[in-house]
Amino acid sequence: MNENYQSKRFRRSGTDRYLAGVCGGIAEFLKVDSNLVRLVLVVLTFFGFSGVFVYILAWLVMPAANEQRSMLEQIIRNFQGKPSEN
């Protein structure tokens, strides 16, 4: 694949992470500081926005930096009885 295509995909960060690397991955995609993304998530959570739910959903949908498939896709493949290849 083209290197520009790979760099423009949402992926969880492998290096800039506290929990699952979701905020770090979003920050890398948007080319902003990851602490800014974390701050926005916390502020939205305090104002009634379900930041925890969004974070968990993003964790399931976004593949890790070194993987091809997301956790949700691997769970679905396992449920269907298909091998969960990377």
Q: What features would you describe in this structure?
A:
With 86 residues, the chain is an all-alpha fold. Helix content is 56%, strand content 0%. The chain has helices spanning 3-7, 22-30, 34-46, 51-61, 71-80. Helix 2 (22-30) packs across helix 3 (34-46). The longest helix has 13 residues, at 34-46. It is flat.
Write a brief structural summary:
With 86 residues, the protein is mainly alpha-helical. 56% of the residues lie in helices and 0% in strands.
SSE layout and pairings?
Elements: H1 3-7, H2 22-30, H3 34-46, H4 51-61, H5 71-80
Helix pairs in contact: 2-3
Features:
disordered N terminus; single chain; 5 helices; mainly alpha; 86 residues; 56% helix; Phageshock_PspC_N; 0% strand
